[in-house]
Every structure is written in structure tokens, then in C-alpha cells.
Amino acid sequence: MPIYQINDQSLHVVKTGANHQQTAVLLHGWSSSWYAMYPVLELVRERFRCFAVDLPGYGQSPPLKERTTIKAYADLIAALIREVSDGPVVLIGHSMGGMISITIALHYPELVERMVLICPTITGRLSRFINFFISPITVLERFGVGSYIVSWIEGVVVGLTDRLMRPASFAERTAISDEVYARLRSDARRHGQGRVRAECFRAMRENDLTDQIKHVDTPALVIWGAEDNTVPLSDASIVDDEWWDADLRILPKAGHWPHFERPSATMRLIAAYLGIARFKLNRRGVQAQQEEEGLNDNAIAYFLAHSDLGTGLNQAQRMRLAAQFRRRRYLSGEFIARTAEIGRELYIIMAGNLEIWRNLESDEGSHEPLSRTALLEREESGLWRKVAILRAGQITGELSLLDQQKRSADLIAGEEGATVLILDRTRLLSLCEDDAVLGTRVLWNIGRALAKRFRFILWQLYYAPVQDLEESQFSEEQSATRQDGDNIYQIGKKG
What we know:
The chain has helices at residues 38-44, 70-84, 96-107, 128-141, 144-156, 160-169, 178-188, 194-206, 234-242, 258-261, 263-274, 277-281, 286-293, 297-304, 315-322, 372-381, 398-403, 425-434, 436-463, 476-494, and strands spanning 3-6, 9-16, 23-27, 49-54, 89-94, 112-118, 220-225, 246-251, 326-330, 335-337, 345-359, 384-391, 395-396, 410-424. The chain folds into 3 domains: 3-126 and 199-274, Rossmann fold (3-Layer(aba) Sandwich); 285-456, Jelly Rolls, CATH 2.60.120; 465-495, no CATH class. It is elongated, with a radius of gyration of 29 Å. α2 (70-84) crosses α3 (96-107), α4 (128-141) packs across α5 (144-156) and α19 (436-463) packs antiparallel against α20 (476-494). The longest helix is centred in the C-terminal third of the chain and has 28 residues, at 436-463. Helix content is 45%, strand content 19%. It is of the alpha/beta class. Strands 1-2-4-3-5-6-7-8 form an 8-stranded mixed β-sheet, with helices on both faces.
């Protein structure tokens, strides 16, 4: 495991993931080590180059030379980020690690793209249970003799702190295994941590974020156990009141360790937020394609603000939505989708343009690119007809995505080529299940885009002038049809 020298401080780090991927930094909480982030690390390394840190004084990292403060930790991790990453990172913090992450986002916002925070301490004032039972032991451990006394008592009364900490840390119906519990408790029992534990206990209280989190502009997913007896749920209420860009989730049957107690539910939320599940679902080809394109969720989120699909979403929602897409560049004449294929994907044009062609032939199976000359020849022969041209921000494929029926037209990259964002039906369904508010808004935006398109089609069919015929050539029936169409258009316009 690598040891980094940052500002004359040694930091033990567990590093995993491919070097070309975006960086994620994982920060554990009080009386823990990097292992406290192990389940999240196993998931996140699917998409990120991960650095799970032993904070100074914990695990295999020596303590700071000066007194421990949250700001000192934040400054040190910020320096580590500059050392290991050439761009903004994703911060993932548990408990005190969540407080450190927020402090970094406040003082070094340019270093953080977004955060995942698990039971973060906000006020720094831990629960009454912790303050009544655990803080006296912590204060006693601060001094050398006291540390020996605590160790001796534990030797005589086996599992003293276990019996005290278990109801403070875990839910009554927790699913944590005895093996994992023993590993977490061994970190808390590690010798030589008495001073740093006591200093951190004080440091959290001195770093109350109540009046500061409203100034955090970094989007975050905040996960809390409903039975957390370490960091009180009143801290979650402050997040809900003051931090509008935070996506707060409360998990039942979980205490202070939801990533160990409710791993499936916790990982599902994190995977949806960071866009990791799509890599597992499409691992054989899509991942390589995304890496070639240099997918940047921040850039996609910015683009979505000006697209049909991103209307009315805040920054945190756009970031979460951005993580669901994959991106691909098509050259002019390349097929994006063919007539009669079963549709499972929605497309947003990010750059260039996309042409919709009605194909009257029966060569739906071929995906070979067509030159502009070949397309013009087919159009002149009457076998193909160009229906529409879609440009940046517009969506297509939503009908087939929703009903899983065959596509009714060919989608071909236009003369400029096209960069396309692709949303798979499975990802959309997962998003709706994981985030009902965001999923509903996305479906609403899809419906609005469909409505606008149908209004335009009505306008084309019934109201737009027919260029190929003189007014004198219209029969009475055609004139009546146009008049009906005019009425339909006017009614639609008012509606």
C-alpha cells in the first residue's frame, strides 16, 4: 500500500482503480481506518481511480505533529488531491470524514466535483448516548496513564466498549456480520490512538458547520441511517433545511454504518448518483467507448441545463442525471438506430445534428454508413424521405424507449456528424426507483418534448403551406382539410 508524503506528513493510502479514470478520495470517520470505507471502495473502483486514506493518527498513518483539527485534516487532503489528481475529484466521507469533506468543499471548491456523505457530522455534537457513555473514556484515553487504565479495564471486563458502542453504532435490526463488526472494533481498539481520538472529539465540536453548509455549492448525496445513535438525526434536519443542493436519503434498519448494515440499498443509491451501474450492465463495449470519449459528468450536467430533458432541474439533479448517460461520437452518414429495431435507448444531440429518415425499403438490417451522395440518390428515387433534422439539446427515440416497440424511422448522423448522449431504458427505470422526484421530472420533460413535437407535426400536416401546389390546384376537399387543420392548430395553440 502506498505511503504519500504530503507537507512532511506521511499518509497511508489504499489505492485501486485504473489510472486514466477520474479520482475519488474516500475518508473514514472517528476511531476508524480506510477499512470503514471498504464496501464503497469495492463499488466505486468500477469507475474511479480510488484513494482510501488512513487519516493521520488512524490506521497506519502517524498522527499530525500539531494538535488535530478538522481544518488541518482538510488542508492535508486538499494537498493530497493536488498531488494525485489533475482535475476535480469525488469526495466520499463517512461520519467525521463527511465533515472533513464538507470543509474541503467550503475552502477548496475547485478541487471537488461532488460528494457522497454517509452519516456526516454537521454540528460536531454527537448523540447524548455517545456524550454520556463514551466521551469520559475518550477523555481518559487522552493521557498516557488513562490509556493503560482503559486497556486494563477492557481486559478485565471483556467487551466493555463493545457493549457500549454497539447500540450507539448499529440499528436494532442491523444486518452487519460478526466478522465485519469485529474488524471495525479492532480499528477502534488500535493502541496509540488515544490522543488523536480525544483531539478529534474536540475538533468536531469546534468545527460546527450549521451556519456554513448553506454556502456549499458542491452537489452531494447524503445518506443517513434512521437509527443512527452516533451522529444525531437532528444533523440531517439541518442538511434538509440549509443545504438545498444536497440529496438527503434516510435508510430504515440502519444505524451509523448503513454501507455495512444495508449494503444493497446504500450501494444502489451511490451507484445511481455516480453512474456506476451502467458500467456493470454494459461492461463489454460501452465502458471502452465511454473512456475513449472522455466522459465528464460536469460538462454533461452543464449541457443538460439547456436541453429538453434538463428543464427545471437544479444542479444536483442535473449532476445525478448526467451520470446515467453514456456518450458517443458518430461520423456523418453513420446509423445511430435503424427502422424496425426494438428501441431501448433515448438520444440527446449534444453537438452536430441528427437526421430522421423514413425508409421505404427493406434493408433495415444494415448499419453500414452512407455517404451524402448515396442518401441524396435514395431520396431522389423516392425510396427514402428525410423527415426532420434534430440539433443540439433535442431528444429522440423516446417513444421506443417507453413502449419498447420497433422504431419507425432511421436515425443518421447529419452532415456535421453528431455527438449523442444515450440513456438506456434500464437506467431510466432505476433512476425512477432510486429518486422518485428526479425520475418524475425527467419523465415529465420527456412528455413535454413529445407534446412539442406532436404540435409541430400537426402544424406540418394541417397548417404549413404546401409549396409544390398552387392555390388554384387545391380541390374543395383539400381546402376543407386545410381549414380543419387551421382550426386544429389554433385550438392547439390556445391549449
